[in-house]
Amino acid sequence: YGKNTIKFLRVHREGKKHFVKEVEVCAHLRLTSPQEYLEGNNCLVIPTDTIKNIVLVLAKKNGIPSLEQFAIDICNHFMTTFCQVAYVKTYVQEVPWRRLHEDGVPHIHSFICVPDGIRFCEAEQCRNGPLIVFAGIKDLKLMKTTQSGFEGFYKNEHTTLPERHDRILCGELFCKWSYGECKDFDFDCIWKKIRECILEAFAGPPDCGEYSPSYQKTVNSIQMHVLSRVSQVQVIEVVLNNTFYNVVDMKNLGLTNDKEVLVPVEAPYGSCACTLGRKKFFEA
Q1: Reported confidence tier of residue 177, pLDDT bands at 50, 70, 90
Q2: Do the annotations mark residue 234 as ligand-binding?
């Protein structure tokens, strides 16, 4: 049991310059005894309102140095404070506020919400067990208008899809990865590096791009690029929900539409998913 959608804004001030973190937290506990379920005995139950207050107090006292560290702080607090807690899981999601710039000059206390992917993390721990940390990015919308195709696929009497060697590749990406043993990581730096790897693998070199023969291959390319560049990542899951575009037929309007005006196909849409990890992790 636990408390969901604990939303708050944490403001940190250094003189006139302000820093903000707005997050949504979910904190769930499993107790050593199920007596509150079986017998209606609530003597070990930490009220969900107390869970909410603890999260807010930790934000006040510790700040939010990184999403991952804040999730770790929450797990540590419940494990070290309450002997009746057998398991704790914390999810933290960030609202993407960015510092506002005017003529290239960063503003000291104004921010703009830029929804170019939502950062999140999870931390979970069993009593006497290891602390496990996941991080990720979701709702990241990506598009490239060429260097993508889909050819040579299996065909039978139900196949109507034509082969394409030049199409728009567009999708909404979800990516979640796990760390190995959590040491003194710079979680912010690692997250930014992984995001850069995702964009690099999706788009290819800026002057020419990179051809994608399928959404599946793009998913794998992203995973391989992250694993090759970020040693702290042990397992990475990527889901790419596809958005398709159809070229508008303008012949009746007396116009030739050379893939300049297209309309999105709202439903149904495709989805590709894969989980990839280092061999030593799975052997362990």
Answers
A1: very high
A2: no
